[in-house]
Structures are given as structure tokens and as C-alpha cells.
């Protein structure tokens, strides 16, 4: 659907207020409309019942309200829900609701496709089409919050930016979305319940530190040896571990926030003692913990989850060095909703 009208949700509250003044109306009308758009999630001007009919028509003449639609929803037998989300231009991204006994976590996408080329990740096979706008990220969270209330009788409690795309390559929009998610006019969630996961863009990690962001940082490390990391995450050739390390030291110095390293152990790739020793060294640069993620196969047989013995070696060596390590079981594998499986297959 081609339109030249502007998306009203691209306007800040201040710009909306100014728009109404320019139309000969009052500033507070901007606040009312803003509330409809962001707190009440209105998708149509006609739903804005405390705004006069003429004003609604005037808005209709100037603007559109772009919004996402949950195109298809799949439920896993472990309770995980995957949404295929249709954007206003017809492109699709996926987001996932992950329930545990105490929490409901939303895993959201930040880009359509991904420009990185991590060899083990299904999303890397989709070309990066475009960045998501702040409202498209926000809407994924709202959709999952609604599903959480519907299926689990509780609101969403946590958000991880671990869906499709590299959040730090769409930093401004991710930040704006998080502002909306955390502001009382949006969802009022605590930033402490939000984690941004990155494959490690040093310059942007420093920028996050300078911006004094309040949410958590996770880095998809997978190897602390340059050669190995570059072979599975070719992007590491441009941003080698020494640069990543320097950025993470800067992050910790500024924010005092512990870093989580996400790490999959693969057979024959990073399952030797030497690999664990390198990881332990890397963990010493800034306070951190390690999250061992189960590998979710992406159908090419190139990567195999390492043996239990290798995982046990990681756990015991990390613990012996006083590094906190957790093992994260996969969720939603049966519906291709687990880490690295998001590829618009359904
Ligand atoms: N681009 C960001 C966020 C998306 S990926 C990042 O790289 O962090 C979210 C997490 O899933 C990352 O830690 C990623 O390395 C991991 N992942 C990707 N493919 C996977 C797979 N097939 N199995 C398990 N984890 C995978």
C-alpha cells in the first residue's frame, strides 16, 4: 500500500504538540493523541474517542498509523510462543515468548534479516532488508505482553534483544524503543529487565557506555581465540577480540554492569581445554558470567553440539576460576523458535 502520508508514530510527543498548535489547536491535544498511540495502542484514529470527529478526520488526512500484525502464531509443546510479525510494508520478522515458572520473557527482533554472517545462525541466511523502526520493536513487545496475559495470566517480565538482527547496528531505534518500553507513558518496565545481545561491535559498546544506558549487555562470544572466532563469526576479522576486550573494559568502568557471555560449545571447534583457558582469561578483563547455550541445529550438519563431557569440562574449569556459569536449555525447538533458528520458515 503506497502512501505519502507520514507515520504519526515517527513523531515525538513534542512534535505532536507543535503540530496541534500549528493547526490552531491546543498543545494538550498532542498529549492526548500521544497517549492513544503509545499507552492505549490505538491502531485507528477513529478509536480515539475523546478527540472530536473533525480532529480525527484532520489527523486521517495528514497521517497514517503504521503498525504490525501478528500474522501467524505457533505454540510449542513447552509453552513457547512464536509470532511471525507482518510489518506495514509486508516484510516479516519473528519474535518469541518464553515462559518459565516465574518469568515471561520476550525475545524480539531488531532488524529484518541480518547483515552479519555467523555460520551457525539461521537468520544469517536472510539478507538484511532494513532496520526496524522504534514502533515496530515496541509493538512486538506489546503483542507478547498481551499473549502473556492471555495464556499465562501475568504481564511480560523480561525482554531480550536476541531475535533477528544485530541490535547495535540499529542502535538509535533500539534505544528509542527501549525508552518507550521503560517510560511510564509506554509500558513502564524497568530497564534492569532488558538485555541487549550483540555479537560485539566495539564502537557501539563504548557508545552505550557513554550514553549510560541502564539495561544489561550480553555478548555472543563463542570463542576467545581470534582464529576460531573468525572462522565461525567472520565479522570478528573486522572487530577482533582485542578491540572487543577494550570496549568491554570501557563498558564496565563506566556502568559497573556485569557482562554476560553467550557461548555455544561445538564438537571439534571450541571443545578443547585450550578453548576454556582462553575463555577464562577473557572473563578476567571485566566482571562477567558465562551462559552456555545449547546448540540448535540449523539443518546443515556442519555444527554439532559438543559432548556432555566437554560441557562438564567448561563448567568445572570456569567454576574453579570463580566464574559464574549457567547452562541454558533450549526452548521452543519444535517450532524453530530457539536461539538462532529464526528464519521465517513457517
Ligand atoms: N545479533 C545478536 C542477537 C541475535 S542472536 C547477537 O549476535 O547476539 C541471539 C543469540 O543466539 C546469540 O548469542 C547467538 O550467537 C545465538 N545463536 C545463534 N545461532 C544459534 C544456534 N543455532 N544455536 C544456539 N544459539 C545460537
Automatic annotation (TrEMBL):
[4Fe-4S] cluster binds at residues 114, 118, 121. It is found in: Cytoplasm. Binds 1 [4Fe-4S] cluster. The cluster is coordinated with 3 cysteines and an exchangeable S-adenosyl-L-methionine. One of its GO terms (cellular component) is cytoplasm. Pfam families: Radical_SAM, RlmN_N. Its main location: cytoplasm. S-adenosyl-L-methionine binds at residues 165-166, 197, 220-222, 296. GO terms for biological process: rRNA base methylation; tRNA methylation. It catalyses: adenosine(2503) in 23S rRNA + 2 reduced [2Fe-2S]-[ferredoxin] + 2 S-adenosyl-L-methionine = 2-methyladenosine(2503) in 23S rRNA + 5'-deoxyadenosine + L-methionine + 2 oxidized [2Fe-2S]-[ferredoxin] + S-adenosyl-L-homocysteine; adenosine(37) in tRNA + 2 reduced [2Fe-2S]-[ferredoxin] + 2 S-adenosyl-L-methionine = 2-methyladenosine(37) in tRNA + 5'-deoxyadenosine + L-methionine + 2 oxidized [2Fe-2S]-[ferredoxin] + S-adenosyl-L-homocysteine. Residues 100-334 form the Radical SAM core domain. GO terms for molecular function: 4 iron, 4 sulfur cluster binding; metal ion binding; rRNA (adenine(2503)-C2-)-methyltransferase activity; rRNA binding; tRNA (adenine(37)-C2)-methyltransferase activity; tRNA binding. Its cofactor is [4Fe-4S] cluster. The active site is at residues 94, 339. Keywords: 4Fe-4S, Cytoplasm, Disulfide bond, Iron, Iron-sulfur, Metal-binding, Methyltransferase, rRNA processing, S-adenosyl-L-methionine, Transferase, tRNA processing. CDD domains: Radical_SAM. Its EC number is 2.1.1.192. InterPro entries: Aldolase_TIM (IPR013785), Methyltransferase_A (IPR040072), RlmN_N (IPR048641), RNA_MTrfase_RlmN (IPR027492), rRNA_lsu_MTrfase_RlmN/Cfr (IPR004383), rSAM (IPR007197), rSAM_sf (IPR058240). Belongs to the radical SAM superfamily. RlmN family. Reaction proceeds by a ping-pong mechanism involving intermediate methylation of a conserved cysteine residue. Specifically methylates position 2 of adenine 2503 in 23S rRNA and position 2 of adenine 37 in tRNAs. This is Probable dual-specificity RNA methyltransferase RlmN.
